């Protein structure tokens, strides 16, 4: 086993970093292998990986269609716009 | 003659009096989903309308009103992110020390108290996801401003990391460190407040 592989087996900090980098960008073939070896033996980082994906899903799937600007603010905004228009 | 008449009857291609009714909710959702802060989102919607008023005479109707207004808002959001980034340097330090405790300083293994534990929920249950999403919103508010900006730009606008680095004046290495730490923090926060 190479030094890099030995090092990664316990290194959850590096493994979680690679998980993030792989999700959003690119990792090298060597890094992908390191990560695979690590995940095979580390259930905590497998849990992390699953939850990391879930967090993205929760963040981007935020139900924004139900959100509305409150009416009082809208009224004020409308008045402000009309006032600004009359200035010109 | 005919042309002149049209010009007088509709001097503007867009009528600001109708903006609030037509676009305020849409623009607010756009801003809120990126900033997750009611007050800031509201202010940016207002700033957008006021800026649009200044430019309305130059609006030629080549794009739709909605696209035009959204474009103005996008710039406001980008300005906001940049301001956050420039003042975010100090807050990084605190969160950095907190985050170091997640892992053993020597071998990088999870420290016992920070082991990721399964949330034990059915990921297809919409009610549980909604509850977890609510907790996530609270956790997002605790992030250093710069981290939140990076996270939101990446996920809500799907921007390339190079673009984000350029906008916020970050190095590529900084970018990945921030993405990693943001996720570690959010995950830990969810675990702490779930159940």
TrEMBL record, chain A:
Domain of life of the source: Bacteria
Protein name: Zf-HC2 domain-containing protein
Source organism (scientific name): Pedobacter mendelii
TrEMBL record, chain B:
Keyword Ligase: no
Location of the RNA polymerase sigma-70 region domain: 20-85
Keywords of this entry: DNA-binding, Sigma factor, Transcription, Transcription regulation
Pfam families xrefs: Sigma70_r2
Top-level division of the source organism's lineage: Bacteria
Protein name: RNA polymerase sigma factor
């Amino acid at each position: 086993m190479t030094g890099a592989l030995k090092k990664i087996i316990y290194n959850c900090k590096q493994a979680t970093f690679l998980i993030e980098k792989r999700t959003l960008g690119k990792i090298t073939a060597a890094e992908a292998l390191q990560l695979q070896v690590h995940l095979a033996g580390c259930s905590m980082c497998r849990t992390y990986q699953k939850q990391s994906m879930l967090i993205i899903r929760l963040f981007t799937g935020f139900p924004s269609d139900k959100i509305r600007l409150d009416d009082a603010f809208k009224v004020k905004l409308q008045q402000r716009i009309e006032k600004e228009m009359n200035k010109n | 003659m005919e042309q002149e008449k049209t010009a007088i009857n509709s001097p503007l291609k867009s009528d600001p009096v109708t903006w609030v009714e037509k676009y305020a909710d849409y623009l607010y959702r756009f801003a809120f989903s990126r900033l997750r802060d009611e007050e800031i989102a509201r202010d940016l919607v207002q700033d957008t309308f006021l800026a649009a008023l200044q430019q309305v005479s130059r609006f030629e109707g080549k794009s739709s009103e909605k696209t035009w207004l959204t474009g103005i808002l996008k710039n406001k959001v980008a300005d906001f992110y940049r301001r956050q980034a420039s003042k975010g340097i100090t807050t990084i330090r605190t969160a950095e020390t907190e985050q170091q405790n997640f892992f053993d300083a020597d071998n990088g293994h999870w420290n016992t108290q920070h082991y990721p534990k399964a949330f034990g929920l059915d990921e297809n249950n919409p009610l549980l996801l909604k509850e977890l999403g609510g907790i996530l919103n609270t956790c997002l508010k605790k992030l250093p401003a710069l981290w939140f900006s990076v996270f939101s730009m990446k996920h809500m606008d799907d921007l390339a990391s190079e673009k984000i680095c350029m906008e916020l004046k970050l190095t590529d290495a900084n970018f990945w460190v921030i993405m990693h730490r943001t996720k570690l923090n959010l995950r830990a926060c969810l675990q702490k407040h779930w159940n």
